[in-house]
Amino acid sequence: MERVCSRLSASFAKDPQILVGPGDDTAVVFIGGSQIALTTDSQIEDIHFRRRWMSLFDLGWKSVAISLSDLCAMGARPIAIVLSLALTGQEPMEEVDQLFDGAITACKRFSCYLVGGDVARSPGPVLVVSSAIGVVAITPWTRSGAKEGDCLLVTGCPGEAAAGFLLLEKGIVAPDDPMTLRFRRPEPRLNLLDPLLSAPLHAVIDVSDGLALDIFRLAQSSGLTAEIFVDQLPLSQTLRDACSQVGADPIDLALTGGEDYELLLTVPEEAAVRVRQTIEAQGVPATVIGRMTTGRAGLVVAVDEGGRRRILSGGFQHF
Amino acid sequence: MERVCSRLSASFAKDPQILVGPGDDTAVVFIGGSQIALTTDSQIEDIHFRRRWMSLFDLGWKSVAISLSDLCAMGARPIAIVLSLALTGQEPMEEVDQLFDGAITACKRFSCYLVGGDVARSPGPVLVVSSAIGVVAITPWTRSGAKEGDCLLVTGCPGEAAAGFLLLEKGIVAPDDPMTLRFRRPEPRLNLLDPLLSAPLHAVIDVSDGLALDIFRLAQSSGLTAEIFVDQLPLSQTLRDACSQVGADPIDLALTGGEDYELLLTVPEEAAVRVRQTIEAQGVPATVIGRMTTGRAGLVVAVDEGGRRRILSGGFQHF
Predict the structure, then answer these.
(1) Are A20 and A28 contacting, i.e. CB atoms less than 8 angstroms apart?
(2) A131 touches chain B (CB under 8 A)
(3) How many CB atoms lie within 10 A of CB B145?
(4) Which residues contact A222 (CB under 8 A, 6 or more apart)?
(5) Which residues of B touch A8 (CB under 8 A)?
(6) Which of A121, A246, A291, B38 is deepest in the core (most CB within 10 A)?
(7) Could you count the other beta carbons within 10 Å of the beta carbon of residue A231?
(8) Which residues 93-122 of chain B have a CB within 8 Å of chain A?
(9) How buried is A223 (Cβ within 10 angstroms: 0-12 exposed, 13-18 middle, 19+ buried)?
C-alpha cells in the first residue's frame, strides 16, 4: 500500500485542491468551499468474516461502520455512503435485505445517508465495499502531525474485537454473543467529533489493523519513534475473559488484534488529562498508552513497568 | 437492485440534502452549496473480464472509466476517485503497478484525481471497486425526466464493446487488438459535458448494461413507453466486422451487448438535430434511435422499417 501511495502521490498530490492525498485514513479534497473527505474499505468473506457466524445484518452494519470510522479519524462528519456488493446469487433475498437493513441501521445510528450502490454477481467470496464522503469543518486531522513529547491516547479497549473474532472462529460462543459485539458491530467514535473539535490534537489515526501497526504508521508518517507503555494498555474484563477462553494473551491481542475501529490520538503532554476527560465524558474509555519521541521514524518500542524495551517495529517494514 | 433501491428510498430519500437518491447513475447530495455526485461500480474477474486476456493496465483504466461515465450521465464533472482492490497476492508487483498506472492514466485523461484506495487480500476473484465523486453545476440530469414525444439519442456505437468482449473471450484476436478497445478502454463522454450544459436534455442515462435494458430503465423511471427504430441503430463497420468474426448479429449486440459506457439522452423533437450536431462537433457519433410515447411505463418496443413491432420489455421485469 505504501508503494501504491507513493505512486499516487507522485501523480496527484501536488494540486492545491487535494488537501490530503493518498496514505491517510481518507483523502480530503476542496470543493466549492467545503473540505470533502472520501474513503473506501472492504469486507471480504473468509478474510474478514465467515458466513457461518457473521449474519448479513452485522456485515451490513460493519461495512458502514468501518468507512465512517475512517471519516471520524480525519475529523469528518459523515454525509453519504454507497455500497458495492459482490454476491453469489445463492443468498436468499431476505438475507440480502438483512444486509441492507444492517447498513441502514448503522447509517441512521451515525447520521449518514445510504444513497445507493451496486450489486454484482460473483462466483464468491461475498464482498462488500463501502465508500463514504464526509465534511471536515476544521483543519483535517492527519496521522503525520505528531510532535516530540506528545502523549499517545487510545479510545476504547483494543483487542476486544479480535477476541470476539477468535471466539466466533473457534466456535466457542454463539454468533450473537455480546462478547463478540465489538467485532460484529463496531461503533465509530463519531460522538467524539464535536467534543474534540477544539482539542489540541496533533495526529489522529483510525485503529483498524492492530494498535501496534497503526502506531507504527502514525510514527512513521510523523517522522518520530513511539514508545508504548504496555502496562498501561487498557485490558478490559471482557478482553481478559475472552482471552482465557481462546487461549490468547490480552496484551498480544491489544497490540496486534485489529478491527478495533478506535481512535489513536497524540496530544501535548499538558493537554493529555483534559483530552482524556473530554473523551470519557462521552462515555468512551480513553487511556494514555505511550509517547512520541525523537528517533528513527516508525520505530515502535514496547516499554514495560521495569523499563525493559522490546522493539515492535524497526521503522522500515511491518512486523 | 430495484428492491434494494426502494428500501433505501424509503429510509433516506426524503431529506432535502439528498437531491438524487438511490436508483439513478449516481446519488447527488447537497453539501455547503455544492451538488456532489457519488457513485460506485465494480469489475470482477470471470464476470467482467478474464485475466488471460485483460491486462491489469486496462483493468485499471476501465475501473476508473466506468465510474466517471456514471458521473457524466448525471452532468457531473469528476473530482476524485478511490479504488478498492481485492487481490490474491499472486499478482506480480509490476502488474499491480500496471493496474494503478492504468487508473492514473485514465484519471489524467479525464481530469480526475486518484486520491487513494484500499488493497485487501482475497482468495480470488480479482476485483476492483471504483468510487468517485464529482460536482454538478446544473440541475442534475436524471433518468426520470423524459417527456412524451422526446427523441432518444445515443452516443457512439453500442455493441462495439460487447463485440470486443466476444473477440477476446473466443480468442479470435490478440488482447491488444484495436477492435477490442471500446471494451478494454471505454471513454466516458465527459467532453460532452460543457457543450451539453445548456441543451434541453429531459433525461440522461449511462448505457452500461445493454442499450435495451437502459432504455427500459429510462422509460420506466419516466413513466413512459419507448420505441426503438431498429433500422436507425448505428452499426459501425467495426461492429459488423467483429460480429461476422464472432458469429453474432449486430443489431442484437447493439441492443443487448452492454459495457458501452455511452450516453442515452432524450430531447424534445425540435431540438434533436441541434443536440446531435452539438455532440458530433465534439467528434462523437450521435444518432436518433427512437422516441418516447405514452403507454405502459417501461414498455420498450422495437419498430422496424416496415412498421413491425416487437416487444423487448414488457415494462414490469427485465427480459
Answers:
(1) yes
(2) yes
(3) 17
(4) A143, A144, A145, A146, A147, A203, A266, A292, A297
(5) 100, 104, 114-117
(6) B38
(7) 13
(8) 93, 96-97, 100-101, 104, 107-108, 113-122
(9) middle
Identify the residue among B131, B136, B142, B217 best suited for mutation to test binding to A, counting A beta carbons within 10 A and taking the highest.
Answer: B131
* Closest residue, chain B, to A9 (C-alpha): B115
Angle between helices B160-169 and B237-246 in degrees, nearest 10: 30
Are the C-beta atoms of B86 and A40 separated by less than 8 Å?
Answer: no
For residue B23, with 0-12 CB atoms within 10 Å meaning exposed, 13-18 middle and 19 or more buried, which class applies? buried
**3-state secondary structure at position B156:** coil
* Beta-strand relationship, A225-229 and A113-121: unpaired
Phi, psi angles (nearest 5°) of residue A32: 50, 40
Residues of B in contact with A104 (CB under 8 A): 7-8, 11-12
Q: Which of A252, A262, A201 shows the shortest CA–CA distance to A228?
A: A252
- Residue A22 at interface with chain B, using a CB cutoff of 8 Å: yes
Residues 6+ apart with CB under 8 A from A210: A162, A255, A256, A257, A258
The string of DSSP letters for B247-292 reads T--HHHHHHH-----EEEEEE-GGGHHHHHHHHHTTT--EEEEEEE
Give me A33's grid cell: 468551499
Percent of chain B residues topping a pLDDT of 90: 90
Give the tens place of pLDDT for each residue, A168-225: 999 999 999 999 999 999 999 999 999 999 999 999 999 999 999 999 999 999 999 9
pLDDT band at B56 (very low <50, low <70, confident <90, very high): very high
- Give ipTM to 2 decimals: 0.93
B55, B99, B100 from A3: Cα distances, Å: 20, 13, 11
